[in-house]
Amino acid sequence: MTTPIAPTQPAADPNAPVITPQAVYIKDCSFESPNGPFVQGTDAQPTVSLNLSTRAGALAQDLHEVVLQVNLEAKAGDKVVWLLELQQAGAFVIKNLSANDTGQVLSIVAPNYLLSFARSTIAELITKGGFPPFLLPLVTFEGLHARAAAQQQAASPSVN
User: Fold this and answer.
1) Are residues 69 and 87 in contact, defined by beta-carbon separation less than 8 angstroms?
2) For residues 135 and 148, what is the distance between their CA atoms, to the nearest angstrom?
3) 83: closest CA among 53, 111, 125, 115?
4) What are the pLDDT digits (tens) for 99-150?
5) Considering the entire predicted model, what is its pTM?
6) What's the distance, CA 103 to chain centroid?
7) Considering only CA atoms, which of 140, 114, 136 is closest in space to residue 123?
8) For residue 2, what are the CA distances in angstroms to 5, 6, 9, 72, 116?
9) What is the DSSP letter of 53?
């Protein structure tokens, strides 16, 4: 009787970069519709303003929390139709990256990952509020990262 020999797997490189989501969760959420879907005197489509930001912090060594903050306000004329605030968060293991690369993961890669979860939550909440779903637009986190880096560089004193 012959015993098959299992092929040997190459050992994983312990210094290889690692970016692994551990959890995705709603950290905070609020939906308000002062008059429900019955806003009087407004036949037009409401205007929706969007404010989006991110923040990141360390939870433990190599474990980071990223929070995508989304604030939406729908108005018809001067009347508020609905307000929505969402903090969509995620915990990510990030290892073996340079400080610059880690910064890019925290401000670009992780928010991009969280955006689809936020988009789904927002569409569902607004629909459950009695309104047509609102779909978050595509966001260029690369542009937000570059702008934040430029502002940080401008704020730091230059050495002559």
Assistant:
1) yes
2) 25
3) 125
4) 999 999 999 999 999 999 999 999 999 999 999 989 899 888 988 777 877 8
5) 0.82
6) 15
7) 136
8) 9, 12, 21, 67, 51
9) E
